[in-house]
Write a structure and sequence with these properties.
4 helices; 16% helix; 3 domains; UDP N-Acetylglucosamine Acyltransferase, domain 1; Udp-n-acetylmuramoylalanyl-d-glutamate--2,6- Diaminopimelate Ligase, Chain: A, domain 1
């Protein structure tokens, strides 16, 4: 499917510089541009590529100053990254969706399947499961008894949704994702550890995306919650009874311990660890590998380090830390000199 610069500019409210009839049929990074591709320039570090790229159309910011003429047609927009995201979403929507239940899928007689769904070979849909219209479920995905999945969801292969769990609308679950495994609950005894039954569920609200091999554990009682608009990267662990606030995002390998309440619009870098029973305020930002041992009460806090501290303090401390060996040597040298001076004075 081809689109002209004029059509694209109209969709993203951009301004054309060059041939409005230039057409594209694919996307490419600006440094790998080819004829017929559309690229974008959002990071100033890549500005030099605009003079070399072979892409037919490039999205650029309205305030970009060019040093010389360029070959591609430019579309100036307020935010190139946001605009290309809209175009990619449009491109995805234009792809035809599969429909129907494959004969090799198992769907329990008591399950309810909405209109225009796709159930791939070797998928399993258990008793009393409800699947909303337009949802796509790929091979070897399992939806256990009494669970529900909303409309227009996308469940890739090898996803597991345990019994009674609830998944909202327009949710994307990537391969290997597990929703509703038992929380890590054990009671120590003289003979070892007795398992505490996890009788709660997981509730995933609308417009959530969860990456490959990530896990959201069911609660001991009640529900573990992943609120509307949350985005979790690959290999993220959400423990039992946790609540992840709306529009919070987590990079790969973040781990959240049990019963922690995370606010809205938080951002966590890779490998952040959060202890149990903590409360994290709205719009908290934690840099990669931060360790959060306690609650954060002030909204908009930015932290770094393990245990985490104010980010600016961490950066200053890091600068000092690099010089600690030399500083330690200086301190020892000064101590020796002071002792020598004391000895001289005492004489």
């Amino acid at each position: 499917m081809e689109f002209s610069a004029k059509q694209i500019a109209g969709f993203i409210q951009g301004t054309i510089e060059g041939d409005e009839n230039a057409t594209v049929h694919t996307f490419a990074k600006i440094e790998e541009g080819v004829p017929g591709a559309i690229s974008f320039l959002a990071n100033p570090k890549y500005t030099n590529y605009i003079y070399e790229t072979q892409s037919s159309i490039v999205l650029v910011s309205r305030d970009l100053q060019l040093e010389k003429a360029v070959n591609p047609t430019l579309i100036r927009v307020d935010n190139p990254y946001e605009s290309v995201a809209k175009l990619l979403a449009l491109y995805e929507m234009s792809k035809p969706k599969k429909k129907g239940i494959d004969p090799l899928a198992f769907v329990a007689p008591t399950a309810t399947i909405g209109e225009d769904c796709y159930i791939a070979p070797f998928a399993y849909i258990g008793e009393n499961v409800k699947i909303g219209k337009g949802t796509q479920i790929y091979p070897h995905t399992v939806v256990y008894d009494n669970a529900s999945v909303g409309e227009d969801c996308l469940l890739y292969n090898n996803v597991s949704i345990y019994h009674d769990c609830k998944v909202g609308n327009r949710v994307i679950l990537h391969s290997g994702c597990v929703i509703g495994a038992d929380g890590f609950g054990f009671a120590p005894t003289e003979n070892g550890y007795d398992k505490i039954p996890q009788i709660g569920i997981v509730t995933i609200e609308d417009d959530v995306e969860i990456g490959a091999n990530s896990c959201v554990d069911r609660s001991t009682m009640g529900s573990t919650y992943v609120r509307k608009g949350v985005k979790l990267d690959n290999m993220v662990q959400i423990a039992h009874n946790v609540e992840v606030g709306a529009n919070t995002v987590m990079s790969a390998q973040v781990g959240v311990a049990g019963s922690t309440k995370i606010g809205e619009w938080c951002m966590f870098g890779g490998q952040v660890g959060i202890s149990g029973h903590a409360t994290i305020a709205n719009r908290t930002m934690a840099g990669a590998q931060s360790g959060i041992p306690n609650s954060i009460k002030k909204e908009g806090t930015t932290i770094q380090g393990s245990p985490s501290i104010d980010a600016r303090n961490f950066w200053k401390s890091s600068a000092v830390f690099k010089n600690l060996p030399e500083m330690w040597a200086d301190v020892n040298r000064m101590k020796r000199e002071i002792e020598e001076l004391k000895n001289l004075l005492n004489k």
